[in-house]
Predict the structure of Glutaminase.
Amino acid sequence: MQALLESILDDVRPLLGQGHVASYIPALADVDPHQLGIAMLGTDGALYQAGDADTPFSIQSISKVFSLVQAISHGGESLWERLGHEPSGQAFNSLVQLEFEKGRPRNPFINAGALVIADINQSRYAAPILSMRDLVRRMTNNVHIISDRVVAESEYQHRARNAAMAYLMQSFGNFHNDVEAVLKSYFHHCALTASCVDLVRGFSFLANGGRCLHSDEHILTPRQTQQVNAIMATSGLYDEAGNFAYRVGLPGKSGVGGGIVAVVPGRYSICVWSPALNASGNSLVGMAVLEKLSEQIGWSVFSPLSY
Amino acid sequence: MQALLESILDDVRPLLGQGHVASYIPALADVDPHQLGIAMLGTDGALYQAGDADTPFSIQSISKVFSLVQAISHGGESLWERLGHEPSGQAFNSLVQLEFEKGRPRNPFINAGALVIADINQSRYAAPILSMRDLVRRMTNNVHIISDRVVAESEYQHRARNAAMAYLMQSFGNFHNDVEAVLKSYFHHCALTASCVDLVRGFSFLANGGRCLHSDEHILTPRQTQQVNAIMATSGLYDEAGNFAYRVGLPGKSGVGGGIVAVVPGRYSICVWSPALNASGNSLVGMAVLEKLSEQIGWSVFSPLSY
Amino acid sequence: MQALLESILDDVRPLLGQGHVASYIPALADVDPHQLGIAMLGTDGALYQAGDADTPFSIQSISKVFSLVQAISHGGESLWERLGHEPSGQAFNSLVQLEFEKGRPRNPFINAGALVIADINQSRYAAPILSMRDLVRRMTNNVHIISDRVVAESEYQHRARNAAMAYLMQSFGNFHNDVEAVLKSYFHHCALTASCVDLVRGFSFLANGGRCLHSDEHILTPRQTQQVNAIMATSGLYDEAGNFAYRVGLPGKSGVGGGIVAVVPGRYSICVWSPALNASGNSLVGMAVLEKLSEQIGWSVFSPLSY
Amino acid sequence: MQALLESILDDVRPLLGQGHVASYIPALADVDPHQLGIAMLGTDGALYQAGDADTPFSIQSISKVFSLVQAISHGGESLWERLGHEPSGQAFNSLVQLEFEKGRPRNPFINAGALVIADINQSRYAAPILSMRDLVRRMTNNVHIISDRVVAESEYQHRARNAAMAYLMQSFGNFHNDVEAVLKSYFHHCALTASCVDLVRGFSFLANGGRCLHSDEHILTPRQTQQVNAIMATSGLYDEAGNFAYRVGLPGKSGVGGGIVAVVPGRYSICVWSPALNASGNSLVGMAVLEKLSEQIGWSVFSPLSY
């Protein structure tokens, strides 16, 4: 497996240089686009890694899964009164659909949905930023996980579109806390910094029936775990979820920091990272790595070969 | 397994009477809504059935999978130059997205996409209606499969919205044959009549690596098979694909005749049928049956339990 | 006045060469873009003309006013049950708004609205093409007015988008006749050929309380006349009606053949023609001519100076 | 004229009780809907009034004309780099169009456009709230005009949708000042309180070539005056501008406080007020009054009779 990972990274290295790193804030625009790392953690405990797998990066929208987990763990099904779990068929930050559907976001992985989740968690926790950071520390088994203040503050400075979405939802009665306060929490979650190795630990519960592999901590029930995987499979890669299902065939979640996590239920959590993005906002090289991995091991959940 | 199917049907029978049968054409509006059947075909050849599993019904949009298979088998990847494989996030027959995206349908399972597929097949086959009927006969192992002329002609009479979509795509250069001729082919495909037992045979290839279980006929390659399952998983149930993934967790395809097919890759093809539809146009009781089945056997592709 | 017209044409001639003639059908694409003509007809009978004012051109959407007149004259207010008289705020041929507003076009001067008007007239007249041609002959006082068959047939060949709109309206129950037949009528109306001098006669009724200046034929009541002027003022220049009101300040109607008619209520009908179009589909030089005319004579209906 | 006004009010009084007063903030919801007043001011100085013409009411969107005047008077044509003067064809507060057109509002009389105007004025004036109040005091010749603090604060509490629009424009670079500060200014402008008699004085410049009738103060040039009238004619009554042109035929501007001002260029400024609104957000009885007035005097700018 180790050899396979090394070999795949070698295969895709010529693609480094294609795509563009996220440039809407300076802190992300300055990242070296030639970095590339991958980690895989088996449910048997075996950890494989290659390339820059220990380098921390801005997890950005990958944090949306942790936020969803937090909201499910204290709210359960009632959560879905305020947002859906349907794919959006739109750019991740479009307001058109949000207005047409009266302030109810389609799913928790588009920005509007993640803001509703942040609003729900804001109502629940006295210190939402710290409680999320602590959850991620436990789930990644890394007490050094921090949120990058420079990134969080820069995102807040450039909050206009997210603020527009939050206020639009508030106008429909689907946002309960102070918009500015929730945005601050949200940007701190997005600014969490973790490595591929951290994230395969953090996502091991999705491959492991809802329990963290390293601590056996109960994160979600088996049925909730399966449901989170389902939402990742239909909505986890912005407006490229269908393509990811077609090419890779695994539940996944990406971030504009260039990370993509994916799950082989029952077997593996995977994280690949390379900062330059394709036109849909997903790691260009990361997509290529996961497609090769899926082809070579036959791991698609839509394939009989993996059973 | 037989007992389980009987038991689930008994559990959901109280729901019969809820929902509404499709009413846009008289031939569908007159169907008795209290019918309910299920069939399952294992890749080991075991066939289970319960209720009205031998009663033929109008397969409607389930035919879109057969049409896609036909287009893939002669066109391969070039197909995707003319349409996508992304979920639509819209009602199945919306024109808004189609105009915004310049006549390129999001996927082959919304009407616009199925019309492009029909246009592609129209260019390829001298007798598109017969060639499709014959394919379905072979795949279902039933030489008595026919297209219901009354239904097909009634659909043609009520073709206005589909005609609007076809002409809109033609205006963008993405429709090559005579619109009226393609619509006739398309409606004949939709009007094919088959039972649950027919359809589990017809979809066995998707559970069986691309080969028909009864004939071992090669329909698609393993990778193509996995890809069709992926598209079904993200786009197979109109604007309820996310909910189906969340509640059931299997690739599936529904039709307004009340049928839903689903696939457990490597294991089973399933077909449930009950004519009354929910607000999203999917069989109301059929959804309930598949959810119970998924819960009780743990068959979601997003769950480690099924491995 | 004659000198003024000549002087304005001289002023704008340097603009000839800017813009682009309509190119969606060959018959329009071949028109020499350097032509420029203007005619004005006073309600006192005085006729002024300059440049290519006697050259016939394809009136295209200017015909929508004649069609509306025909529909009002036999249908009266009931007409407005099937379409509105609100500006559209959209490109003239968008389907988005039409779908959102359930097949009811916003006004009679966008294509969808004109198609509903054509459908209404199709129900009323045994020979809709001839009855329109005869009306325009009477109104222009020119028995030689004809519809250009080559243009009409070419438009029919390229009917896809208009067909999409008609079928979409039919799907909402707002289109009653055979789509193909109505489209043929519609394209024959658009293909009518007339000169600036013809058209100032044809539009004299709008400056003259509803009566043709040359024949005193009653076309509309004074109130209906004022209402048609109002619709032209808010919706007559595609998605540039606001700009036309702002810059020119007169009720007007344009066509992609490069003609623009305008009305000074109580005083003048005006027609300017130059084939090259601006980005909004209106005659680029024609707009400049009318703006200069409005500025130099102070004829805006929104100005006290003209009273 | 006095008798005519009285007679028209008597005619429409049976309509009082239809429609609904604006209810999005308590301060407006509590207004007695049975009030009705009208005032007319001739350019010869003659003032006519009937009913509750001296009762102050919340002018709301009528203030958008004063704000536009302020922006034109110091900015001139450069203003139109940031917004358009086209009708919107949408609800007054829709975000769809704003997103599609990349944060550039269609005109200054929809909320998004008025917010851009407020942003422009915020950049220009040290005390935007006071400078606007003082302008309105001068233009209405009433030093007692004030902004209702309760209304302004209540609007600010319910600012969510306007905030969403402002932030959306900021995300496109078309909003330069602090959103919260501009919203406060904007709501204070909307909360200005004036009577019909105040407003006919305040709008006399639009009937009088740009000069206040009572003071001869130069507000706008004649051409700018005509242009403001043109924008009012195409965009002044929310999504009912076309209907207002069709039924009344005068430049006008309405507010959700139930006021409507209208202008007969060269002759009269008119203000009618009755709080209950129709489905488009315009005074139900006010519309009826103006239609009757237009019919009985023949004042449409689209009619030759008034010349």
